[in-house]
Every structure is written in C-alpha cells, then in structure tokens.
Design brief:
Alpha-Beta Plaits; alpha/beta; 4 helices
Length: about 180
Amino acid sequence: MSAPPTDRSVVRPRSGRRPIPPLIFLLTLALAALAVWWNVFDDEGETEAQEAAACANASAAPPSLDPSTVSIRVFNATDTANLAQDVARALQERGFVVEEIANDPTDREVTGVGELRHGPRGNDAAAFLELFVPGVGDYLDTRATAQVDLVLGPQFALPGSLAAPEEVDAALSAAASAAAAC
C-alpha cells in the first residue's frame, strides 16, 4: 500500500544558503581584530622598553659640572717630556683647577691613553673629566677627597687625545635630553 497523498509539498533542503561562508567571514574578522590588538600591546611594550633603556642611559650619563669645581692633578707616566705641563695648560684653558703637575709618583703601570685615579667622592668629577679625555681608564682608590688624578699613558698625544669642546658639549646635551625624557 502506498501512503496517501497530502497537500503538503515535499521539503527540500535549502540550496545556496550554507552557514559556512558567513562563519568564515566572522572568523577572519575576529582574527584580524586579534592581530590589531596584539600589535597595539606589542608596540606599547617596545615603547616602554625603549623608555626604560633611555632612562638607564641617562642615569649612567656623566654629570654636567662646572670645570672650575673639579680639582685635578696631572701626572706624566710616559717618556715624553713636558706632556703633563701641556695637558695641564689645555685643561686650565677649559676652566679646570690643576693643583699639581708632575711625573707619576707611583710604580703603577699605565697603558693606553691613561687613567683617572680617584676615590669614591671623586666619581662625578672623574666621569665629567672622562668627557674631555675619551678612552682614558678608570682606577678607583681609597682617597677620601674628591680630587682626581689624570695620569697620562703612552698612547696619549696632543691635541688628538683631548676631546674638542664641541664634542664635550654634544655629549653633555645628549645626556641632558635623555635625562629630560625620563
């Protein structure tokens, strides 16, 4: 026996109305939004890291001092005659207070351009003087004063071993702008 005919038509599946393309579109849109937010947060992290690095450099930057407040002694540890006198004169022309000019009184071997000898109280003065004598080494001793000894080494040569005033000003302004950014 066959089923009685009904007035209802046979239900056909919907053709052309698949839910997959809109779902793919929404999924793509969500992934794009996620990528945009990821970049925003990643850029913020990079910016914060750059600011932290700039502030760390600014705190390590040499202080800007008045040269007339820096007391130095210039010692010659080379075989070049009158080198200490010539360097002392050049530093005095830039405003430094030179208290003593002599040959190196210690038996310490000095290499390279030279070294700055100072105690803990002379850290700022030594860092400032290092701007004027690039490449000079640093030697911390136990003295209780802020006085700094500039000991000239075998690779020191005038005028090349002293920084030009423009170079010193550029280094100080770069340090000041880095400190202002923090």
